[in-house]
Protein backbone atom coordinates (compact mmCIF):
# COMPACT_ATOMS: atom_id res chain seq x y z
CA UNK A 1 0.00 0.00 0.00
CA UNK A 2 1.33 3.45 -0.85
CA UNK A 3 2.20 6.05 1.76
CA UNK A 4 -0.25 8.48 0.15
CA UNK A 5 -3.10 6.16 0.93
CA UNK A 6 -1.92 5.45 4.46
CA UNK A 7 -1.56 9.11 5.34
CA UNK A 8 -5.27 9.70 4.76
CA UNK A 9 -6.19 7.20 7.47
CA UNK A 10 -7.53 8.44 10.72
CA UNK A 11 -5.18 8.97 13.62
CA UNK A 12 -6.01 8.30 16.39
CA UNK A 13 -9.07 6.10 16.84
CA UNK A 14 -11.61 6.41 19.68
CA UNK A 15 -12.52 4.10 22.53
CA UNK A 16 -16.08 2.77 22.84
CA UNK A 17 -17.63 2.38 26.27
CA UNK A 18 -20.77 0.42 27.07
CA UNK A 19 -22.46 0.59 30.43
CA UNK A 20 -25.32 -1.85 31.04
CA UNK A 21 -26.35 -1.83 27.39
CA UNK A 22 -29.36 -3.96 26.46
CA UNK A 23 -31.27 -4.33 23.19
CA UNK A 24 -34.78 -5.75 22.84
CA UNK A 25 -37.10 -6.44 19.91
CA UNK A 26 -40.58 -6.71 21.36
CA UNK A 27 -40.40 -9.46 23.94
CA UNK A 28 -37.08 -10.71 22.61
CA UNK A 29 -33.86 -9.77 24.44
CA UNK A 30 -31.06 -9.56 21.86
CA UNK A 31 -28.37 -8.10 24.13
CA UNK A 32 -28.49 -8.22 27.88
CA UNK A 33 -26.75 -5.77 30.16
CA UNK A 34 -23.38 -5.48 28.48
CA UNK A 35 -20.70 -3.38 30.16
CA UNK A 36 -17.26 -3.18 28.63
CA UNK A 37 -14.75 -0.97 26.88
CA UNK A 38 -13.27 -1.33 23.42
CA UNK A 39 -10.08 0.59 24.13
CA UNK A 40 -8.66 3.25 21.81
CA UNK A 41 -6.43 2.07 18.93
CA UNK A 42 -7.29 -1.55 19.74
CA UNK A 43 -8.03 -4.30 17.21
CA UNK A 44 -10.99 -5.96 18.86
CA UNK A 45 -12.54 -9.31 17.90
CA UNK A 46 -16.16 -10.13 18.69
CA UNK A 47 -16.88 -13.86 18.77
CA UNK A 48 -19.77 -16.03 19.86
CA UNK A 49 -22.34 -18.54 18.66
CA UNK A 50 -24.66 -17.91 15.68
CA UNK A 51 -27.55 -15.76 16.80
CA UNK A 52 -25.58 -14.65 19.89
CA UNK A 53 -26.01 -10.96 19.09
CA UNK A 54 -22.67 -10.04 17.52
CA UNK A 55 -24.13 -8.12 14.55
CA UNK A 56 -26.66 -6.51 16.87
CA UNK A 57 -23.79 -5.27 19.04
CA UNK A 58 -22.05 -3.71 16.03
CA UNK A 59 -25.29 -2.07 14.88
CA UNK A 60 -25.84 -0.72 18.38
CA UNK A 61 -22.39 0.90 18.38
CA UNK A 62 -23.21 2.38 14.97
CA UNK A 63 -26.43 3.86 16.34
CA UNK A 64 -28.60 1.76 14.02
CA UNK A 65 -30.42 -0.01 16.85
CA UNK A 66 -32.21 1.47 19.83
CA UNK A 67 -30.76 0.42 23.18
CA UNK A 68 -31.12 0.86 26.90
CA UNK A 69 -28.07 1.81 28.98
CA UNK A 70 -25.20 4.10 28.05
CA UNK A 71 -23.00 3.82 25.01
CA UNK A 72 -20.29 6.38 24.41
CA UNK A 73 -17.74 6.75 21.66
CA UNK A 74 -14.92 8.80 23.13
CA UNK A 75 -13.38 10.55 20.16
CA UNK A 76 -9.91 12.03 20.70
CA UNK A 77 -9.82 15.80 20.39
CA UNK A 78 -8.14 15.88 17.00
CA UNK A 79 -10.39 13.17 15.60
CA UNK A 80 -12.84 13.86 12.78
CA UNK A 81 -15.35 11.44 14.36
CA UNK A 82 -15.75 9.26 11.30
CA UNK A 83 -16.93 5.67 11.19
CA UNK A 84 -16.48 3.05 8.50
CA UNK A 85 -18.79 0.03 8.42
CA UNK A 86 -18.63 -3.22 6.54
CA UNK A 87 -21.98 -4.98 7.03
CA UNK A 88 -22.45 -8.73 6.97
CA UNK A 89 -24.24 -8.60 3.62
CA UNK A 90 -24.53 -6.20 0.67
CA UNK A 91 -26.50 -3.13 1.80
CA UNK A 92 -28.63 -3.04 -1.37
CA UNK A 93 -30.25 -5.28 -3.95
CA UNK A 94 -27.38 -6.69 -6.02
CA UNK A 95 -29.65 -6.94 -9.09
CA UNK A 96 -29.66 -3.13 -9.43
CA UNK A 97 -27.87 -2.04 -12.61
CA UNK A 98 -25.14 -0.07 -10.88
CA UNK A 99 -21.43 -0.21 -11.62
CA UNK A 100 -18.56 -0.43 -9.14
CA UNK A 101 -17.55 3.10 -10.20
CA UNK A 102 -21.01 4.56 -9.47
CA UNK A 103 -21.32 2.66 -6.21
CA UNK A 104 -18.05 4.19 -4.97
CA UNK A 105 -18.95 7.68 -6.22
CA UNK A 106 -22.31 7.48 -4.45
CA UNK A 107 -20.60 6.29 -1.28
CA UNK A 108 -18.21 9.22 -1.25
CA UNK A 109 -20.43 12.10 -2.23
CA UNK A 110 -23.94 13.30 -1.62
CA UNK A 111 -23.95 15.03 -5.02
CA UNK A 112 -25.78 13.36 -7.90
CA UNK A 113 -23.19 11.18 -9.58
CA UNK A 114 -23.80 12.51 -13.08
CA UNK A 115 -22.09 15.76 -11.98
CA UNK A 116 -18.90 13.99 -11.03
CA UNK A 117 -17.94 11.20 -13.41
CA UNK A 118 -14.24 11.74 -12.80
CA UNK A 119 -12.90 9.47 -10.10
CA UNK A 120 -11.43 11.36 -7.13
CA UNK A 121 -7.95 10.32 -6.00
CA UNK A 122 -9.22 8.62 -2.84
CA UNK A 123 -11.47 6.31 -4.86
CA UNK A 124 -8.66 5.44 -7.23
CA UNK A 125 -6.38 4.67 -4.27
CA UNK A 126 -9.01 2.62 -2.45
CA UNK A 127 -9.90 0.56 -5.50
CA UNK A 128 -6.23 -0.09 -6.22
CA UNK A 129 -5.70 -1.27 -2.67
CA UNK A 130 -8.32 -3.97 -3.03
CA UNK A 131 -7.24 -4.89 -6.58
CA UNK A 132 -10.51 -3.97 -8.29
CA UNK A 133 -9.22 -1.37 -10.75
CA UNK A 134 -10.03 -3.65 -13.67
CA UNK A 135 -13.62 -4.08 -12.44
CA UNK A 136 -14.66 -0.41 -12.22
CA UNK A 137 -17.23 -0.68 -14.99
CA UNK A 138 -18.60 -4.04 -13.98
CA UNK A 139 -22.09 -4.25 -12.48
CA UNK A 140 -21.86 -4.76 -8.74
CA UNK A 141 -24.27 -7.69 -9.03
CA UNK A 142 -21.85 -9.42 -11.41
CA UNK A 143 -18.91 -9.31 -9.01
CA UNK A 144 -17.90 -12.54 -7.31
CA UNK A 145 -18.51 -12.89 -3.57
CA UNK A 146 -14.87 -12.14 -2.77
CA UNK A 147 -14.82 -9.11 -5.10
CA UNK A 148 -17.97 -7.72 -3.49
CA UNK A 149 -16.39 -8.14 -0.08
CA UNK A 150 -13.31 -6.20 -1.20
CA UNK A 151 -15.54 -3.48 -2.69
CA UNK A 152 -17.34 -3.15 0.63
CA UNK A 153 -14.04 -2.85 2.49
CA UNK A 154 -12.87 -0.16 0.06
CA UNK A 155 -16.16 1.66 0.71
CA UNK A 156 -15.74 1.39 4.49
CA UNK A 157 -12.25 2.92 4.24
CA UNK A 158 -13.17 5.60 1.73
CA UNK A 159 -13.83 8.47 4.11
CA UNK A 160 -10.74 7.83 6.25
CA UNK A 161 -12.64 6.64 9.32
CA UNK A 162 -11.24 6.83 12.85
CA UNK A 163 -13.24 3.75 13.83
CA UNK A 164 -13.74 0.74 11.58
CA UNK A 165 -16.59 -1.65 12.30
CA UNK A 166 -16.46 -4.90 10.34
CA UNK A 167 -18.97 -7.74 10.33
CA UNK A 168 -17.11 -10.86 9.16
CA UNK A 169 -14.78 -9.10 6.70
CA UNK A 170 -13.15 -12.35 5.50
CA UNK A 171 -16.38 -13.90 4.20
CA UNK A 172 -15.99 -15.19 0.65
CA UNK A 173 -12.28 -14.35 0.38
CA UNK A 174 -9.71 -16.88 -0.75
CA UNK A 175 -6.31 -17.05 0.91
CA UNK A 176 -4.76 -14.29 -1.15
CA UNK A 177 -7.85 -12.08 -0.71
CA UNK A 178 -7.63 -12.61 3.05
CA UNK A 179 -3.93 -11.74 3.04
CA UNK A 180 -4.70 -8.51 1.12
CA UNK A 181 -7.44 -7.52 3.54
CA UNK A 182 -5.33 -8.37 6.59
CA UNK A 183 -2.52 -6.25 5.16
CA UNK A 184 -4.87 -3.29 4.75
CA UNK A 185 -6.32 -3.73 8.24
CA UNK A 186 -2.88 -4.12 9.83
CA UNK A 187 -1.72 -0.85 8.28
CA UNK A 188 -4.92 0.87 9.36
CA UNK A 189 -4.45 -0.43 12.91
CA UNK A 190 -0.78 0.56 13.02
CA UNK A 191 -1.70 4.07 11.88
CA UNK A 192 -3.82 4.41 15.03
CA UNK A 193 -7.35 3.47 13.96
CA UNK A 194 -9.64 1.43 16.22
CA UNK A 195 -11.10 -1.78 14.73
CA UNK A 196 -14.08 -3.72 16.10
CA UNK A 197 -14.74 -6.82 14.04
CA UNK A 198 -16.82 -9.97 14.13
CA UNK A 199 -14.59 -12.85 13.09
CA UNK A 200 -14.88 -16.61 13.58
CA UNK A 201 -11.40 -17.62 12.48
CA UNK A 202 -9.47 -18.10 15.71
CA UNK A 203 -6.06 -18.40 14.05
CA UNK A 204 -6.54 -14.95 12.53
CA UNK A 205 -7.87 -13.46 15.78
CA UNK A 206 -4.98 -14.89 17.76
CA UNK A 207 -2.44 -13.49 15.34
CA UNK A 208 -3.86 -10.00 14.88
CA UNK A 209 -6.27 -8.94 17.59
CA UNK A 210 -5.61 -7.31 20.96
CA UNK A 211 -8.78 -8.30 22.77
CA UNK A 212 -11.54 -10.89 22.34
CA UNK A 213 -15.17 -10.50 23.46
CA UNK A 214 -17.42 -13.56 23.62
CA UNK A 215 -21.02 -12.47 23.07
CA UNK A 216 -23.92 -14.79 23.71
CA UNK A 217 -26.67 -12.31 24.49
CA UNK A 218 -24.46 -11.26 27.40
CA UNK A 219 -20.73 -10.59 27.43
CA UNK A 220 -19.71 -14.02 28.66
CA UNK A 221 -15.98 -13.51 28.58
CA UNK A 222 -13.36 -10.94 27.60
CA UNK A 223 -9.59 -11.42 27.43
CA UNK A 224 -6.49 -11.03 25.33
CA UNK A 225 -6.29 -13.90 22.80
CA UNK A 226 -3.38 -15.54 24.65
CA UNK A 227 -5.45 -15.79 27.85
CA UNK A 228 -8.86 -16.41 26.34
CA UNK A 229 -9.11 -20.19 26.45
CA UNK A 230 -7.12 -20.83 29.63
CA UNK A 231 -9.37 -18.51 31.62
CA UNK A 232 -12.71 -19.00 29.94
CA UNK A 233 -15.75 -19.78 32.08
CA UNK A 234 -17.09 -23.32 31.83
CA UNK A 235 -20.38 -22.28 30.22
CA UNK A 236 -18.65 -21.06 27.04
CA UNK A 237 -18.98 -23.84 24.49
CA UNK A 238 -17.11 -22.75 21.38
CA UNK A 239 -18.22 -24.33 18.12
CA UNK A 240 -15.12 -26.16 17.05
CA UNK A 241 -15.88 -25.69 13.36
CA UNK A 242 -15.82 -21.93 13.94
CA UNK A 243 -12.77 -21.89 16.16
CA UNK A 244 -10.10 -22.99 13.77
CA UNK A 245 -6.75 -24.80 14.17
CA UNK A 246 -4.13 -24.71 16.88
CA UNK A 247 -6.33 -25.27 19.90
CA UNK A 248 -5.21 -28.78 20.83
CA UNK A 249 -6.87 -28.60 24.19
CA UNK A 250 -10.29 -27.99 22.57
CA UNK A 251 -9.85 -30.32 19.63
CA UNK A 252 -8.72 -33.24 21.79
N1 LIG B 1 -34.88 -6.81 14.15
C1 LIG B 1 -34.92 -8.01 14.74
N2 LIG B 1 -36.11 -8.51 15.17
C2 LIG B 1 -36.20 -9.71 15.78
N3 LIG B 1 -35.12 -10.50 16.01
C3 LIG B 1 -33.93 -10.06 15.60
C4 LIG B 1 -33.76 -8.80 14.95
N4 LIG B 1 -32.46 -8.64 14.66
C5 LIG B 1 -31.84 -9.75 15.11
N5 LIG B 1 -32.71 -10.60 15.67
C6 LIG B 1 -32.41 -11.89 16.29
O1 LIG B 1 -31.46 -11.62 17.31
C7 LIG B 1 -30.53 -12.68 17.42
C8 LIG B 1 -29.11 -12.11 17.27
O2 LIG B 1 -28.92 -11.74 15.92
P1 LIG B 1 -27.51 -11.29 15.38
O3 LIG B 1 -27.60 -11.12 13.91
O4 LIG B 1 -27.04 -10.11 16.17
O5 LIG B 1 -26.59 -12.56 15.76
P2 LIG B 1 -25.12 -12.91 15.35
O6 LIG B 1 -24.39 -13.29 16.58
O7 LIG B 1 -24.52 -11.82 14.54
O8 LIG B 1 -25.36 -14.20 14.45
P3 LIG B 1 -24.52 -14.86 13.25
O9 LIG B 1 -23.24 -15.40 13.82
O10 LIG B 1 -25.42 -15.96 12.78
O11 LIG B 1 -24.32 -13.81 12.20
C9 LIG B 1 -30.89 -13.68 16.34
O12 LIG B 1 -31.66 -14.71 16.94
C10 LIG B 1 -31.73 -12.88 15.37
O13 LIG B 1 -32.68 -13.68 14.71
From TrEMBL:
Q: Does the keyword ATP-binding apply?
A: yes
Signal peptide (residue range): none
Q: Pfam families, alphabetically?
A: ABC_tran
- State the organism's lineage: Bacteria, Pseudomonadati, Pseudomonadota, Gammaproteobacteria, Oceanospirillales
Domain ABC transporter per the UniProt entry, residue ranges = 16-242
Gene3D superfamilies the UniProt entry points to:
P-loop containing nucleotide triphosphate hydrolases (3.40.50.300)
Listed PROSITE patterns: ABC_TRANSPORTER_1 (PS00211), ABC_TRANSPORTER_2 (PS50893)
Keyword list, A-Z: ATP-binding, Nucleotide-binding, Transport
Name the Gene Ontology molecular function terms of this record: ATP binding
- Where on the tree of life does the source sit, at the highest rank? Bacteria
Name of protein: Metal ABC transporter ATP-binding protein
Coiled coil regions in record: none
Amino acid sequence: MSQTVLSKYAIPGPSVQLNEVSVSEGELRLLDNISTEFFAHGWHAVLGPNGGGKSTLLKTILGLTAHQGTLQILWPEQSECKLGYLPQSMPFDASLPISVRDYLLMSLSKKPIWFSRKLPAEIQAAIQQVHLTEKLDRRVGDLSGGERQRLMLATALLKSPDLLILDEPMTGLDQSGQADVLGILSEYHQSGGTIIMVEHNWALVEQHCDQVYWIDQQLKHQAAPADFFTNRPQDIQPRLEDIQPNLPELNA
